[in-house]
Amino acid sequence: MFPAPASDSYGKPQVMKARVTVTLKTGILDPQGKAIEGALRSLGVEGVTSVRQGKVFDIEIDGGDPKKAEALLKEAADKLLANTVIENYRVEVVG
Amino acid sequence: MFPAPASDSYGKPQVMKARVTVTLKTGILDPQGKAIEGALRSLGVEGVTSVRQGKVFDIEIDGGDPKKAEALLKEAADKLLANTVIENYRVEVVG
Description:
The structure is a homodimer of 95-residue chains. By secondary structure, chain A is α+β, with helices and mostly antiparallel strands. Chain A has one domain (15-93): Phosphoribosylformylglycinamidine synthase subunit PurS (Mth169, Chain: A), CATH 3.30.1280. In chain A, 29% of the residues lie in helices and 34% in strands. Chain A has helices at residues 31-42, 66-81; strands spanning 15-24, 48-62, 87-93. In chain A, strands 2-1-3 form a three-stranded antiparallel β-sheet. The interface between A and B is medium-sized, with 34 and 33 residues.
């Protein structure tokens, strides 16, 4: 058996794509979502009972290791992208 | 064959959950994403080569018809949630 190569790229650096989704925790008020709810109603869009707004970050990362990428993204989310007191986040490495 | 019931709920109204994801179109500058990139670097998170920020809307809708829900959400996205000149959106009915 051969060891896995450190990189299987041909001179060009590998890039992974990922998405971090940040949403408000249950129970945290979302006045912006409430405003959107009201605006939809006044625009004639009927049937929407609740709106909660969150954020997504589409991120590109150097390197080809999904495990490392996920660890990096969790660090980024904890340090900067999410306020973990009031927000949850989810990390997906797309490929 | 019996016609499908208008609602199969037992007195309580049916609610569907959905998510609308709004992202900037390719080529549209994202200064906020650039700022996050820089902030991550100065926080010591290495390896992030690109960040683009978008929005998510977690929406609850009356009724049990996924087709109708999707049409409603597209209307909401076109009218309010996304600026279709510079943004793309994706609608997912979760269930």
